[in-house]
Write a structure and sequence with these properties.
Blueprint: E1 6-7, E2 13-14, E3 17-22, H1 32-36, E4 42-47, E5 53-54, E6 65-70, H2 81-85, E7 91-95
Antiparallel strand pairs: 1-2, 3-7, 4-5, 4-6
Amino acid sequence: MSTVTGLTFGGQTWIPEFLQKINWDTCLGCGRCFKVCGRGVMALIALNDEGEVVDEDEDDDEIERKVMSVVNAANCIGCQACDRVCPKGCHVYAPLPA
């Protein structure tokens, strides 16, 4: 199986890896990755105390914490800027198969 490759400006081979998911166990919900991504790949979502996604319009007592989630994976260009600003290394990437 081969993967999609590209070239850097200097002519070196580069294999982009695209955001697949965010590890909610370690995500702080700080929003740094959201702020650095200009492609709208992620959004902040609410979780209850059992780690299940809840509607943010519900009672605030239901919300335990907020975390980032991949909502538009197709918009990812593989730059990994989100990983460079993440203090916890929560992002999981994979190359695109050819």
